[in-house]
């Protein structure tokens, strides 16, 4: 059984809809103050127990970068027991992640990617009022400690339609986690073993992988990769318009890029037109597989965003179930009004968050092998048209009768503004961190 009362709420619990959220980053200037912060945060961080209770819709979670663990005074032997990707941090993994050109760490928003990012506090609530109350409680705890500096803040939100900046419904597809009591969204996908998401449990390979030591620190923890992803919405709209034969075809081309219509309705279920009712129906909008109905990708192109991100049962090189993830994406910035094709200069996009037990085999693998390469499905060196590290030489092809379509001159629609790899400790681990001897 999963020890839900020791796992942070943000790992497993589905989010309310709509919601408001905030990321606050801290630098620990003094280890003693950092440990005091951990003790205080231990009192305000919610656990994943009672996943259905409405009070649990408001929560604060706390994660630490490798530099943060160091600043707290975690012993060297323990630091060495963390996986190498985590120790190096996201900026050092730029090449693997395709963070090049405009997305490369030298252009990241400061202090993202720097050694100053130690603690990531995330607050989430169904509305701004309740978020402010939760944050005020957390602030009371941290403001009284000198030796801790808040260095960055990002507000974000999910609309009732969960529309992200390109105009598609997001937050639909989630894996079920065995023993969590929380249902997944695809009735055709067997629940995943808990060790895929929480440390200290059997995973899909049938083993309990090594966890950071001592046991009290690693057990019931998870890893988070958060990324601030700027979306070039006007460029995306211009591209779709320039590559279609009229407004109806525009919607189809956009859907062929994403793998879903804007309403969230999957091409796999309604390939010819959008269906708003289906898009909003949680019982049906993720109930599909690919292998039998659509092996070639006539409906959902193999290179589209959702099929790359989760090929489900399609024939690919490799095993899909060991590369799954829990996603916690939240939009930031104002939406570009409908129909506007010129960039207004506003900062908008997605605060993307991966949650899982293995940064390398899950997040980095999906980003590098599935988003930034197409060999796994026989698509050669192609990239995800939504979030891939695209250059102008890249093309996007999909099968269509009578002739396949090949769209030229893609551009990079998503630019990385920064991010970090963090460890989301269990609640007992937070307490352990708070009680470390200096
Ligand atoms: C700004 C960048 C991105 C945008 C606009 C975006 C948008 C979307 C949308 C609209 C969906 C379909 C709705 C849903 O199933 O929730 C989706 C699904 C998904 N995305 Fe993204 N996404 C972005 C970045 C990423 C990144 C960086 C990754 C992973 C490295 C990722 C992984 C996934 C996964 C795993 C799914 C679920 C696929 C499925 O199970 O069908 N996305 N995304």
Descriptive labels:
438 residues; alpha+beta; four-stranded antiparallel beta sheet; 14 helices; 11 strands; globular; binds protoporphyrin IX containing FE
Please provide a written account of the structure.
- The longest helix has 16 residues.
- The protein has about 450 residues and is of the alpha+beta class.
- Helix content is about 25%, strand content about 15%.
- The radius of gyration is 21 Å and the shape is globular.
- It has 14 helices and 11 strands.
- Helix 2 runs antiparallel to helix 7 and helix 2 runs antiparallel to helix 14.
- Strands 5, 6, 7, 8 and 11 form a 5-stranded antiparallel beta sheet that branches. A 4-stranded antiparallel beta sheet has the order 2-3-1-4.
- The model has no long low-confidence stretch (mean pLDDT about 95).
- The site of protoporphyrin IX containing FE has 26 residues, from strand 5, helix 12, strand 8 and helix 13.
């Amino acid at each position: 059984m999963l020890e839900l009362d020791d796992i942070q709420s943000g790992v497993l619990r589905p989010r309310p809809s709509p919601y408001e959220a905030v990321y606050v980053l801290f630098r620990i200037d003094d280890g003693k103050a950092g440990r005091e912060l951990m003790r205080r945060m231990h009192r305000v961080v919610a656990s994943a127990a009672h996943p259905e209770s409405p009070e649990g819709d408001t929560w604060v979670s706390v994660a630490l970068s490798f530099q943060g663990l160091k600043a707290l005074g975690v012993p060297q032997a323990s630091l060495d027991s963390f996986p190498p990707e985590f120790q190096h941090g996201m900026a050092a993994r730029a090449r693997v992640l395709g963070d090049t050109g405009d997305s490369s760490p030298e252009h990241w928003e400061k202090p993202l990617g720097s050694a100053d990012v130690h603690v990531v506090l995330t607050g989430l609530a169904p509305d701004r009022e309740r978020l402010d109350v939760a944050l005020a409680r957390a602030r009371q705890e941290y403001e009284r400690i000198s030796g801790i500096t808040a260095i960055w803040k990002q507000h974000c939100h999910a609309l009732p339609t969960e529309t992200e900046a390109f105009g598609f419904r997001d937050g639909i597809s989630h894996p079920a986690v065995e023993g969590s009591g929380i249902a997944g969204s695809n009735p055709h996908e067997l629940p995943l073993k808990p060790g895929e998401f929480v440390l200290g449990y059997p995973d899909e390979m049938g083993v309990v992988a090594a966890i950071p030591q001592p046991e009290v620190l690693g057990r019931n923890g998870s890893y988070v990769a958060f990324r601030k992803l700027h979306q070039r919405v006007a460029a995306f709209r211009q591209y779709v318009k320039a590559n279609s034969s009229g407004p109806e075809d525009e919607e189809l081309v956009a859907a062929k890029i994403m793998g879903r219509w804007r309403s969230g309705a999957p091409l796999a279920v309604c390939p010819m037109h959008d269906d708003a009712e289906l898009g909003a129906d949680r019982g049906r909008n993720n109930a599909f597989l690919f292998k039998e109905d659509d092996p070639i990708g006539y409906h959902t192109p193999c290179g589209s965003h959702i099929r790359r991100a989760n090929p489900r049962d399609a024939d690919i090189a490799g095993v899909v179930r060991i590369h799954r993830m829990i996603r916690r994406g939240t939009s930031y910035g104002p939406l570009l009004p409908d129909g506007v094709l010129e960039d207004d200069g506003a900062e908008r996009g997605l605060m993307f968050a991966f949650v899982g037990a293995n940064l390398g085999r899950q997040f980095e693998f999906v980003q590098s092998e599935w988003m930034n390469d197409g060999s796994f499905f026989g698509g050669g060196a192609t990239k995800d048209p939504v979030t891939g590290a695209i250059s102008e030489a890249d093309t996007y092809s999909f099968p269509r009768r009578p002739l396949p379509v090949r769209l030229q001159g893609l551009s990079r629609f998503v630019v990385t503004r920064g991010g970090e790899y963090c460890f989301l400790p269990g609640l007992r681990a937070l307490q352990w961190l708070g009680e470390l001897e200096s």
